[in-house]
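We emphasize that the prediction below concerns an isolated chain of 246 residues; any contacts that depend on oligomerization or on bound cofactors are therefore not represented. The input was used exactly as deposited, without trimming of termini.
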Amino acid sequence: MSTLLLLTSALQPSAEVLPGLALLGHQVKILPSEGSALLEAPDSDLLLVDGRQDLAHARDLCRLIRTTGTDVPVLLVVTEGGLAVVSHDWGMDDVVLHTCGPAELEARIKLAIGRLNARREAADPDAHVIRSGEVVVDDATYTAKVGGRVLDLTFKEFELLKFLAQHPGRVFSRQQLLQEVWGYDYFGGTRTVDVHVRRLRAKLGPENEILIGTVRNVGYRFVLPAKESAKVEADARSTESTSVDA
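Result of the prediction step, given as a token string:
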């Protein structure tokens, strides 16, 4: 699940601007289609710019976004008429029709974010390595270790461990894990998640199986080691204190 910002001047919810978006599990925040809105915009994985009604304004906004120095992908939402006039020098990363289906939209979002991650990893050799406690996941070599021991994981087991380790402490429902790990077009049931979690715990071993925690009636989460969890909480309290003082 990604965090998306939708810049639009329309007074409708995001489902009216881009109907396919309502069928996806991303977190969508709506901001006015103005450059000033970017000054206090929250962090996001991708920007959507509504160009259905005022394409010239959307073009200028895309170009303005690029002058801010952000490398977050920008997707321009257009009508079929607008599709005929868009140009590569507008500053967006991709163009999407407002009528596109959820599968196409999900693919474009993932590709745009994936290209950004690839560029960041190329600039930072350690960007593809996820460390959480004694668990080390290397996304480049598709290897995972716990306490220095290499885990013999299947592709989906690796992807599940990687996704959970990327979001330590956060609880995901089985349906969310199906969408994020298996993909939007996967038609299997949520029982698949339970089976893979059981296998993953077995491979982590008795001393480490608690790393994949179960939240009753909700789903699963990656459990931070006690020391690391305390550090995260301390950092969070420090950040809150600084915000109050400011």
